[in-house]
Amino acid sequence: MPESSWIWIREHCVPSNYEAARAIRDELISELENHDWGKREIFGVHLALEEALANAIKHGNQEDEAKRIHAILRLSEDRVQIVIADEGEGFDYYHLPDPTDKQHREKPSGRGVLLMEKFMDRVEFNERGNRVLLEKRRLFAD
Amino acid sequence: MAEYRRLEVKEVGDVTVVYFRDQKILDDLNIQELGQELNHLVEVENCKKLVLNFTTVEFLSSSALGKLITLEKKVKNTGGILKLCEIQPEILEVFTITKLDRLFKIHPSEADALAAF
């Protein structure tokens, strides 16, 4: 998608803490509300962004505030795109256990990536696993 | 019954009904505190029959789900029963996607949950 198609772009490079993550999250959600995105769509984007930021802070940067979270938020008339990157070691996206399997269902963690995949239209990790691209197309009511 | 920062608690007969003060269950520190308060109900207050009423909750993350799973195990280990109710559609979808709707006993209303004990 050409850069010119985006009507709103923000880039952030922030320390790995929840206060900084909250500011990023609130900024995007507010922008979606201003552009009259639907309640369910906003819920899905909110959830996916929350999971991506939590993964970056907790698993990626191991809550080390000296490490940074890089975020790019883009909005067009019909889609939202989010890129979240951390400075951690990454992980093997292709060999994550399925949290819906009966043997994993009672584990208290490991559902973030599944929720991103279910609520967004596009979820792509880089090879190292420390950068995720999330995209969702907007559904327009008739 | 102790005072809680994240929860409101009432007794209905021998059932403890719990409401969440936060509309959005977010941010790790809040979720940690929420988990501690839920655990307190089971481990210190010795509540055996629990209903969590989600009527006020508009959003929760997978980290909050983790606290609910831990609570469910604790309740089960003490021979108690945990039920969830009044979950908004978007959040119910999260339970369905993760198949946690098979782990938890979920009821549409508080009255249904109370009647099911």
Give a description of the structure.
The complex is a heterodimer of chains A (about 140) and B (about 120). Chain A is α+β, with helices and mostly antiparallel strands. Chain A has three helices and five strands. Chain A has a five-stranded antiparallel sheet, with helices on one face. The longest helix of chain A is centred in the middle third of the chain and has 22 residues, at about 40-60. Chain A is globular. Chain B has about 120 residues and is α/β, with parallel strands linked by helices. Chain B has four helices and seven strands; from the N terminus they run E-E-E-H-E-E-H-E-H-E-H. Chain B has helices at about 30-45, 60-75, 90-95, 110-115, and strands at about 5-10, 15-20, 25, 50-55, 60, 80-85, 105. In chain B, the strands form two sheets. Chain B has a five-stranded mixed sheet with strand order 1-2-4-6-7. In chain B, strand 6 (about 80-85), helix 3 (about 90-95) and strand 7 form a beta-alpha-beta unit. The interface between A and B is medium-sized, with 25 and 23 residues.
Quick tags:
heterodimer, A: 142 residues, alpha+beta, 5-stranded antiparallel beta sheet, 3 helices, 33% helix, 24% strand, B: 117 residues, alpha/beta, two-stranded parallel sheet, 4 helices, globular
Report the structural category of chain B: alpha/beta
Largest sheet of chain A: 5 strands, antiparallel
Number of helices of chain A: 3
Strand order of the largest sheet of chain A: 1-2-3-5-4
**Which range does the strand content of chain A fall in?**
15-25%
- Give the number of DSSP strands of chain A: 5
Given the C-alpha coordinates, what overall shape of chain B results?
globular
Number of H- or I-type helical stretches of chain B = 4
Question: How much beta of chain B, percentage-wise?
Answer: 15-25%
Write the element-wise H/E pattern of chain B from the N-terminal end onward.
EEEHEEHEHEH
Proportion of residues in helical segments of chain B? 40-55%
User: Percentage of helical residues of chain A?
Assistant: 25-40%
Q: What's the mean pLDDT score of chain A?
A: 94
Major beta sheet summary of chain B: 5 strands, mixed
User: How do the strands line up in the largest sheet of chain B?
Assistant: 1-2-4-6-7
